[in-house]
Amino acid sequence: MSKRIALITGITGQDGSYLTEFLLSKDYRVVGMVRRTSTVNFDRIAHIQEAIDIVQGDLLDQSSLMDIIREYQPDEIYNLAAQSFVPTSFSQPVLTGEFTALGVTRVLDAIRHVKPDTRFYQASSSEMFGKVVEVPQRETTPFHPRSPYGVAKVYGHWITVNYRESYNLFACSGILFNHESERRGLEFVTHKVTHAVARIKYGLQRELRLGNLEARRDWGFAGDYVRGMWLMLQQDKPDDYLLATGETHSVRELCEVAFQRAGLNWSDHVIVDSKHYRPAEVDLLIGDPSKAKRVLGWQPEVNFQQLIEMMVDADIAALQRSK
Ligand code: NAP
Ligand code: GDD
Is 241 an annotated catalytic residue? Predict the structure, then answer.
């Protein structure tokens, strides 16, 4: 039997790298779409690069998406590409809308015209809940996004639902709560903290400047979440699912766990800096993943403490290797 083919947009990102490893373990042929840059950065997929096909394309360019689908005939498309950093969405709101919102329509429209039986996964976000109207949040909770990023993701979610209902596409929206790992970008708060902990431990920096310490998130491990993405596309019918741990922790607790792992006291090093506050904040996120558990049989395997300790250990090990 010939291999199933999966196309991943955003393959060079955190989730793209874990999803690729997962799909290769399931014997897929994986095609990764990357945008053209003057300097190539394949750090997260360098270890598996030989096992995948890399193709150039861009969410801003409709014809590149159509050509790629025509050439590779993917059975499944995972649309992970996005401008994914919330503060940047305030400083570059139009570009964020182009990538993160309209980019979804471009992929869906390419599927509709070229290969309408392709199964489609959209990387939706708990940021869509924003100023939450119920706790915990479920698939049915109304959205109230608090950033241009969140607004763009709401558009991406609804256009996915709309193409499913209008054109009968197998299109799923996965509403994923924050998921992290040692491959997380350094600008996101978990990795910013664990990376700083390693550097403080080795005397390379003394202080860590953060914004709102009271913000609460439902943080899980990225490796668990990519399994959920795949499960959504293996069902008989397309639907939307929420993936979360069902636990919430503050940035302050994150600091406590991370510094403690390295034998440090967080309050000796953390400085609150208003520069890292956002024009509008998402104060509290906590998801109810019971539908995903019931229908997909999905549940996370790594808890908050294990995740943060794993990230601190990885950052310390990386620093030791580089010394
Ligand atoms: P990430 O590490 O920031 O990766 C984003 C990816 O998108 C990168 O590969 C980037 O390529 C690519 N990209 C950006 N603009 C593009 C464009 N115009 N054309 C083609 N590719 C483009 O994000 P992540 O954490 O892996 O998240 C994956 C997806 O899940 C994103 O859509 C994010 O918004 C969503 N999400 C993430 C979380 C989370 O907690 N991680 C939670 C909910 C939803 P370059 O390498 O060229 O920059
Ligand atoms: N990045 C950052 N840097 N965040 C900080 C800092 C800081 O110095 N200090 C406090 N925070 C707070 C932010 O205000 C926010 O409330 C929380 O930490 C988490 O911030 P991020 O790690 O940047 O993640 P996010 O929740 O805004 O967005 C991530 O998760 C979304 C899912 O809910 C991203 O991965 C999005 O792409 C994703 O959709």
Answer: no
